[in-house]
């Protein structure tokens, strides 16, 4: 290895914006099992399937229909 490298002519990684970021998310057991069984059927990893589903929701701006109960 060289002691120093010349990066003056380097260019930025064009795929850097596409890199994934690791996060911690808490999912219930039923949800995890659903995606794991779907992963077995499709041959795609369950975390990849969760990411694809969430990306689709974000792209289509899908929103959950939720109603919060007010405390009496």
From TrEMBL:
Write down the species. Answer: Eiseniibacteriota bacterium
Please report the name of this protein according to its UniProt entry.
BrnA antitoxin family protein
Write down the InterPro entries for this protein, in alphabetical order.
BrnA_antitoxin (IPR025528)
